[in-house]
Structure formats: structure tokens, C-alpha cells
Amino acid sequence: MKRVHLLFIIFPLLSVVRFESEATTLVSLSMEQKFALAERVLEVKVRATSSGWDDEKEKREIRTSVEAELVEAFKGKIPGKNGERKGVQFFLPGGIVGDIGQLVVGTPHIEVGDRFFIFLTSAGEPLGLGDGVYEIQLIEGKERVRQKGGEFEGTEIAGEALVPVERFRKVLRELGQKR
After folding, report:
1. Higher pLDDT, 53 or 26
2. CB-based burial of residue 77 (10 Å sphere; 0-12 exposed, 13-18 middle, 19+ buried)?
3. What digits encode the pLDDT tens for the residues 63-109?
4. Start-to-end CA span in the chain (Å)
């Protein structure tokens, strides 16, 4: 009988306790699926980032605006005049405004000077958060694309696949021609 009374005390207490979760669950998509779902597929170099409230009145969500130089567009139109280096803007959930920070687990960490390939939604955010961002890194004197999950064959380092940049560009160009 004591166990039943204990349950009546514990369950109401659990409903008052606040639990926080720090997880983002996404279904990993193939390269072809990402390409088909993305509004734009681009190679970019980050020029600037700035964070602000998504809704200045309610101040519920922080978004980071990323200004980048377009290196190449594999899918989607980018406004601008012919011959000029076009700028691209996209958004990431989370960021820091004043002394308030908001972290969205799974969002890629992007800094000025970073280069990467990005699959963008119609809302101007990466498709699948970090799953739609392929970082370009200089490894042993060669530019490589890094993506968690090993989608490409290549050298495995700490569980992450590395692919030569030109091979990655070739895959994206071929996907663009299939459309």
C-alpha cells in the first residue's frame, strides 16, 4: 500500500520539474536527395556574420545572418549583375545578442573566412542544419571537403570522410546537369 501512495506523490512532482533537452534528430539524406530538396546549392566564402532577434518585439528566437561571397552556384539563381562577384545571404538558427546566447544543437559553427558548400532551403537556412554544410579545409597541403558520416570514399580520419574539392564540385555539377 505504501508504494501506491508514493507514486501519487512522485508523479505530480515530476510534472512540475522542468527538463531540458540538448538534441537534434535529423534523418540523413543522400547527396541526390539533398540536391533535389535544396532551393540553392552553393560554394561560398564567409565575409561577415551578425546575430539578432528573429522577432524584435517578442525576442524569442535568435538568428545569425551570414554574408558570403559566391564562388560557384550549382543550383538556384543568385541576383546580381553579370561579371560581378555576387554576395549571398543566408541564416542560421541561434547566436548571441548582448549577453543572451541561444544554441541550436546541430547548427554548423561558421566564422569569417570559412569556405564551404551549402545546400539552402527556400527559407535561406541550411538543409538539415549541419548536414547541408560541407566544410572546405586545407589538409596536408590539399583542399578537402569534410562531412560527418562518410558519404564519400576516401581517407577516414576520426570517422569523417575527406574528399578532394574538385571531385566534390564534379559531383555537384553532374547532379545539376541531371535536372
Report:
1. 53
2. exposed
3. 999 999 999 999 998 766 555 558 899 999 999 999 999 988 888 88
4. 68
Q: Give the residue among 51, 95, 46, 94 at the shortest CA–CA distance from 69.
A: 46
Closest CA to 38 of 101, 119, 149: 119
Cell 510534472, located at residue: 15
Q: Which CATH number fits domain 26-134: 2.40.50.120, 2.60.40.10, 3.30.70.100, 1.10.443.10?
A: 2.40.50.120
Contact 130, 107 (CB under 8 A): yes
The count of other CB atoms within 10 Å of the CB of residue 112 is 12
Looking at residue 23, its amino acid is A
Q: Which three cell numbers stand for residue 108?
A: 554548423
- Are 119 and 108 in contact by the 8 Å Cβ rule? The answer is no
Contacts with 174 (C-beta within 8 Å, 6 or more apart), sequence order: none
CB 79 within 8 A of CB 70: no
Write out pLDDT tens, residues 137-166.
998 899 998 765 545 433 333 345 678 899
The C-alpha cell at 76 is: 538556384
Task: Give dist(CA 53, CA 95) in Å, integer.
Answer: 9
* pTM: predicted TM-score of the whole model, two decimal places: 0.75
Residue 130, number of CB atoms within 10 A of its CB: 19
